[in-house]
Design brief:
The chain has about 80 residues and is mostly helical. It has one helix and no strands.
C-alpha cells in the first residue's frame, strides 16, 4: 500500500512538472508571437518611411534634373 502511495505521488509530481513545462512553453510561444507582431509593425513602418523617402528623393532629383524655365515678367 505504501508503494502505491509513493508511485501515485511521483505520478502526480511528473504530471505537475509536465503542466509547468507546458505552461512555460505557452508563455514563450506567446512572447515569440508578440515579438514577431512588433517585428512586422516595425518592418511595415520601415516600408512606409522608405516609400516616402523615395518620393521625396524623386521630387528633389526631378527639380534638379529638369529645372523650371526662368519666368520673365512681361509687365513694364
Amino acid at each position: 500500500m505504501r508503494e502505491v502511495g509513493i508511485k501515485t505521488f511521483f505520478g502526480v509530481n511528473v504530471i505537475l512538472r509536465e503542466v509547468i513545462v507546458t505552461l512555460f512553453g505557452v508563455i514563450v510561444t506567446f512572447r515569440e508571437v508578440i515579438v514577431t507582431f512588433f517585428g512586422v509593425i516595425v518592418t511595415f513602418r520601415e516600408v512606409i518611411v522608405t516609400f516616402f523617402r523615395v518620393i521625396v528623393t524623386f521630387r528633389i532629383s526631378k527639380h534638379f534634373l529638369f529645372p523650371a524655365a526662368p519666368r520673365y515678367s512681361t509687365s513694364l
